[in-house]
Amino acid sequence: MRTERNGLLRAAASDDAVTSIDLQVLSKLFDSAPDTAFFVKDAEGRYLAVNESLVKRHGLRSKADVIGKQPRDICQGEFGQVPSKQDEKVLRTGRSLNEHLEMHWNRPRHPVWCLTTKLPLHDPAGNVVGLVGFSRDVRVSIPTDEIPTAYALAMEEFERTLDPAVTPAWLAERSELTTTQLARFTRRVFDLTPTQLIAKIRIAAASRLLRDTEKPVVVIALDCGFSDHSAFTRAFRRATGVTPSVFRKQR
User: Fold this and answer.
1) 3-class DSSP state for residue 2?
2) Distance between CA atoms of residues 224 and 218, nearest Å
3) What backbone torsions phi and psi does residue 235 show, to the nearest 5 degrees?
4) How many CA atoms, within 13 angstroms, populate the side-chain half-sphere of residue 171?
5) Hey, what domains does the chain have and what are their CATH numbers?
6) Where does the HTH araC/xylS-type domain lie (predicted)?
7) Cα-flanking dihedrals φ and ψ of residue 54, to 5°?
8) Rounded to an integer, what distance in angstroms lies between the CA atom of residue 28 and that of residue 33?
C-alpha cells in the first residue's frame, strides 16, 4: 500500500519535470493547519492521506478510520454524497475545482463555511490517477476594529435586512469604496469575493431559519432576499450540496 500511495502522487511541475511527494510528509505538514481539511485520494475517490483536521471534523479518532474510504463512507446522508460526487467529476473530466464556496459540518453538527479546491493528479502518460485538495475555513482575517465604519455599517444593514437589492455595486456604494477597492478589501478580510460573501450571508441566514424555525421554505427564500423558491433552491444546493427541504430534515 505504501508503494502504491507514493507512486500515485506524481504531479507535473512543468511539461518536462515530474515531482514525487511522500504522502506521510505531506499529511504531517497539513496537520499543523487546523483550519484546513487536507486530503489525497486515489482514482476511485478513496482517501490515501488526510490531516488531523479532517479526522476531527468527522468525529473520528484516527486517520486509520478514514484511509481507504470515500467521503460517503464516513459522512451519512446527502452531506457525504456531495464531496464524493465532486471527486467523481474531477476524476472523470480531469478538470479542477477551484475555491468553491460551500458549507461543511463539524461534529457535532456545527456549520463551517469553506473554500474547497481539488486538483487532478496525473501519471507520466497523462492519465488521471487521483486527486489532491483541501477545504479551508473562511474566517475574518483582521481585527474588526480595523474595518472602516462605512463598510461595517453596510454589512450590518445587509445582514439585518437581507435586501434582495444588495449587490457588489450596492455594497461598494454604501461602503464609500470603488468596486475595485471593495473587492480588494473583501478578499483581505474574508478571503472571498464580494459575490461569494453576499451568497454566504444569504445562505447562512436561510440555514439558521431552516434549522430553528418552522417557516415554509418559500417564506424563508423571500426573507433571505431570493427572488423565488427555485432561485433559492439552486443557490442553497450549490452551497450546501442539498436542497433546503433535505437540509431541514437532517437538522
Assistant:
1) helix
2) 10
3) -65, -40
4) 27
5) 2-137 (3.30.450.20), 144-249 (1.10.10.60)
6) 152-250
7) -60, -40
8) 10
Edge-first strand listing for the sheet containing 36-42: 47-50, 36-42, 128-137, 110-122, 97-106
Residue that has been written with the C-alpha cell 480531469 in this structure: 94
Phi, then psi, of 21 in degrees rounded to 5: -125, 130
What pTM, to 2 d.p., does this model score?
0.68
Cβ atoms within 10 Å, residue 198: 20
Rg of the chain over CA atoms, in angstroms? 20
Could you please report the per-residue DSSP string of 158-180?
A: HHHH--TT--HHHHHHHHT--HH
Q: Letter for the amino acid at 210?
A: L
User: To the nearest 5 percent, what fractions of the chain are helix, strand and coil?
Assistant: 50, 20, 30
3-state secondary structure of 114: strand
Rounded Cα–Cα distance for residues 218 and 238 (Å): 17
Report d(CA 203, CA 174) in Å as an integer: 22
- 3-state per-residue secondary structure call for 138-159: CCCCCCHHHCCHHHHHHHHHHH
| Helix pair 229-240, 194-212: axis angle to 10 deg | 100
- What is the mean pLDDT, run by run of 10 residues, along the chain of 251 residues? 48 35 80 92 95 92 95 80 90 93 70 88 93 87 74 90 96 96 91 93 93 94 96 93 89 61
What are the cell numbers at 4? 502504491
> Within 13 Å and on the Cβ side, how many CA atoms surround 153?
8
